[in-house]
Amino acid sequence: MRTNDLQDIKNRYNIVGNCDALNRALDIALQVASTDLSVLIVGESGVGKEIIPRLIHDHSIRRGKNYFAINCGSIPEGTIDSELFGHEKGAFTDAIGESKGYFGVADKGTIFLDEVGELPLATQARLLRVLENGEYIRVGGQKVLKTDVRVVAATNVNIQKAISEGRFREDLYYRLNTIPIQIPPLRERGDDILLLFRLFAMQIAEKYRLPRITLTEDAKQRMLKYKWPGNVRQLKNITEQMSVLSENRLIDAETISRFIPDDYDTTLPAPIAGNNSAHSYENEREALYQVLFELRTNVGELRRELNGLRRQIDDAASITSQAQTLSSKFPAVSEPAAHHTIPTESHVEDAVAEEINDVPESLNLNDQERQAIVKALERNNGNRSKTAEELGISSRTLYRKLKQYGLT
Fold this sequence. Notes:
Blueprint: H1 3-12, H2 20-33, E1 39-42, H3 51-58, E2 67-71, H4 80-85, H5 101-105, E3 110-114, H6 121-133, E4 135-137, E5 144-146, E6 150-155, H7 159-164, H8 170-176, E7 179-182, H9 192-208, E8 214-215, H10 217-225, H11 231-245, E9 250-251, H12 253-256, H13 281-329, H14 347-357, H15 365-379, H16 384-391, H17 395-404
Parallel strand pairs: 1-6, 1-7, 2-3, 3-6, 8-9
Antiparallel strand pairs: 4-5
Helix pairs in contact: 2-3, 6-8, 9-11, 13-15, 15-16, 16-17
């Protein structure tokens, strides 16, 4: 393709860049546009794959017909067949009428299937049938329908790996991949990074009526060395951040470091920019999230403490009731032990009566609770599980009471 023709295409579709890989992708797209061959566009997320199918449609014999761009990853699995191929009335609960689906409405036109690697296997089988002979059946229908649609697909996943893992049909891959077009990542486009930055900075300045930001030489080097894992989309976002948050309109390397990592080789996304002198709503949002998190934590702790107090009250009431039951069985006598008449029918009953007679009447509630626990422990030979069972409380509550009264 001649340089002038290529530049006209870039101007029409607002494509910025001069790298060889990008030019090659555009050249292939224009050559294949006049055919009806299926095209598979491969590239990382954010590189601008959506421009190619629009270019292909506009330069094909179908340019006067419908064009639909469909993000396969954003449609729920349960409804994607209905969205693409249509459905008959009553096919499912909400099917109050029939639907043609995209393949029915786009007859004679072009469909762009973005993120085609996210399609369910059952839908892949339906798509393969359309690609092979133009036939499809609506959901809930039996009649075979025909459609004449040009399919252009795109993916950012490793299709070969998806095939080996059984997530993508190999026959569909080869059917879609008749003409492959590779879109280069931003990190491989060299000075295109600076050209795109200049474009985005100008657009943002015009949109928000701000002075346009520019880069110093050291800042340009930082931009060129960074790996840009989010590609063009990430570059645009960072340019917007710098345009709005930076007081100085001349961006140097120090300012750049607040928006992209110092590690040139990182493939992590850029962190949220921090600027002590600039007002950042991101910082306010983070502070609000922190306050809400701490509030939720405090509420949770209060709820747990309240539940703990309720359990203690219930346990105390249970132990008091047990103590009162024991006291009613073995009533304490305030007179001297010498004047008591001790039953002699059972040696066991004699021993218990003597122990109860040693308890003074002036014992308060806590003393009675402690004494009841002590006696229960003695009767069960120190076995805490049996003691807790006798007192009608849990082992954990018994342990807490033992610790409270210094009996551990």
